[in-house]
């Protein structure tokens, strides 16, 4: 995270009463921002997250530099935080929605329905009817049964055939176990849609989410091209869209992924006119933009081992440890904000366990983790907590994930004016 500009903080549509609206004009890291929030409001409710909008802007710029021919459709499921959605909408991103509720939340930001792809290959009838009623007219499918439903409830909807990528990318979340037509199923599925008068405009795939081998994009783009050829062999209208799905991370993996995507597109679609390429990045935009601040609410000393309870856990934001196989990291707020401070660097550390707040022993966030001695009411901060975190938390034991507050920060001042005019 670069330099944060604390002033001004704006309120995005749909987020009410949870934002600090004005902070002092000091600058610093996201941890300084958290410290200043806490100092300003000592009664601050813990836990809370900080969304750094500068990170989002930077990632969008990086996307358009490295993947200039791919229009991003942010995958709302990854983190439906309305400030994030609002910023992405304002900055020109489109959206991948998986359900009626996700479509509603994107439309409520004033986004036009043609900036939404309904990228769920298996939809309930009522959700299809809703998509038809609001003019969301592009969706994915990978079965004949889905074609029947779409024919009945949204016959004008344009279709993307979701295929299973030929190469397993080894991602932490392999989606091919559940979705995607097999190569041998493609001709029948295309034929079935064609016979019912539905317009199959292209192909979609997802190589799997979280740390996959980026070469899988190249293979999947090749497979998409084969589907285009099969469709043309069946006398169908010329296909025009390739949806390369998600699977991107924001670190150096992104450069590698962009390389393989660009190579694949050049090799297989370079000579085709008028092809629209879209992607459905979720993790790429959400992960590094959010930092979670939690409070130590309990402590037990067992010999040299320190055990702490914090107020968020496996049933809350940290469900990503279970569902998304994430490795979370954390540090005491005081030292995260001053990593160079010798008092922090030289402080004795202890093997520590960090528990979540519920009464279930499964609710353990970290084991054998080195931390300095902490006291009740100290703050522990967790970076990179935006992807598949708050989106899938629960209210177990009465700890409501959806009640976690969001505070907004900027890490670049140049965008302040730009974004401010949009909210
Ligand atoms: N598109 C679809 C259809 C998905 O199922 C997912 C994640 O499950 C995504 C996009 C987002 O993937 P990622 O977060 O890896 O970018």
UniProtKB/TrEMBL annotation:
It catalyses: L-ornithine + H(+) = putrescine + CO2. One of its GO terms (biological process) is putrescine biosynthetic process from arginine, via ornithine. InterPro entries: Ala_racemase/Decarboxylase_C (IPR009006), De-COase2_CS (IPR022657), De-COase2_N (IPR022644), De-COase2_pyr-phos_BS (IPR022653), Orn/DAP/Arg_de-COase (IPR000183), Orn_de-COase (IPR002433), PLP-binding_barrel (IPR029066). It holds the Pfam family Orn_Arg_deC_N. Its cofactor is pyridoxal 5'-phosphate. One of its GO terms (molecular function) is ornithine decarboxylase activity. GO terms for cellular component: cytoplasm. It is an enzyme of class 4 (lyase). The modification N6-(pyridoxal phosphate)lysine is found at residue 77. It comes from the Eukaryota. Residues 59-286 form the Orn/DAP/Arg decarboxylase 2 N-terminal domain. The keyword Transport does not apply. Keywords: Lyase, Pyridoxal phosphate. CDD domains: PLPDE_III_ODC. Pathway: Amine and polyamine biosynthesis; putrescine biosynthesis via L-ornithine pathway; putrescine from L-ornithine: step 1/1. Its EC number is 4.1.1.17. Homodimer. Only the dimer is catalytically active, as the active sites are constructed of residues from both monomers. Belongs to the Orn/Lys/Arg decarboxylase class-II family. This is ornithine decarboxylase. It comes from Lupinus luteus (European yellow lupine).
């Amino acid at each position: 995270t670069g330099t944060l500009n604390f002033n001004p903080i704006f309120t995005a549509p749909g987020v009410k009463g949870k934002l600090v609206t004005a902070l002092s004009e000091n600058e610093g890291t996201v941890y300084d921002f958290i410290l200043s929030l806490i100092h300003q409001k000592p009664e601050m409710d813990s836990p809370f997250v900080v969304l750094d909008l500068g990170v989002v802007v930077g990632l969008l710029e990086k996307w358009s530099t490295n993947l200039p021919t791919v229009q991003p459709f942010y995958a709302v499921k990854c983190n439906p935080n309305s400030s994030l959605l609002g910023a992405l909408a304002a900055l020109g991103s489109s959206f991948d929605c998986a359900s009626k509720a996700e479509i509603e939340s994107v439309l409520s930001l004033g986004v036009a329905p043609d900036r939404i792809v309904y990228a769920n290959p298996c939809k309930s009838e009522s959700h299809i009817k809703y998509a038809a009623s609001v003019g969301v007219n592009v969706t994915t499918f990978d079965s004949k049964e889905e074609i029947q439903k779409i024919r009945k409830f949204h016959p004008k909807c344009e279709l993307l055939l979701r295929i299973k990528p030929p190469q397993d990318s080894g991602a932490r979340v392999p989606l091919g176990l559940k979705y995607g037509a097999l190569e041998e199923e493609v001709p029948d599925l295309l034929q079935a849609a064609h016979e019912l008068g539905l317009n199959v405009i292209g192909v979609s795939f997802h190589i799997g989410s979280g740390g996959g081998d980026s070469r899988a994009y190249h293979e999947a783009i090749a497979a998409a091209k084969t589907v285009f050829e099969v469709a043309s062999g069946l006398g169908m209208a010329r296909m025009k869209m390739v949806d390369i799905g998600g699977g991107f991370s924001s670190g150096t993996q992104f450069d590698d992924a962009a390389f393989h995507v660009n190579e694949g597109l050049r090799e297989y679609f370079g000579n085709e006119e008028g092809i629209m390429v879209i992607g459905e990045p979720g993790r790429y935009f959400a992960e590094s933009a959010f930092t979670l601040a939690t409070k130590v609410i309990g402590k037990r000393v067992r010999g040299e081992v320190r055990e702490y309870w914090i107020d968020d856990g496996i049933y809350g934001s940290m469900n990503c440890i279970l569902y998304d196989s994430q490795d979370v990291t954390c540090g005491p707020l005081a030292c995260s904000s001053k990593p160079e401070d010798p008092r922090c660097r030289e402080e004795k550390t202890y093997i520590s366990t960090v528990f979540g707040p519920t009464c279930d022993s499964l609710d353990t966030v970290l084991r054998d983790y080195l931390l300095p001695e902490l006291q009740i009411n100290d703050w522990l901060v967790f970076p990179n907590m935006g992807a598949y975190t708050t989106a899938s938390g629960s209210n177990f034991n009465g700890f409501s994930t959806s009640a976690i507050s969001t505070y907004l920060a900027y890490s670049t001042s140049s965008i302040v004016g730009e974004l401010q005019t949009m909210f």
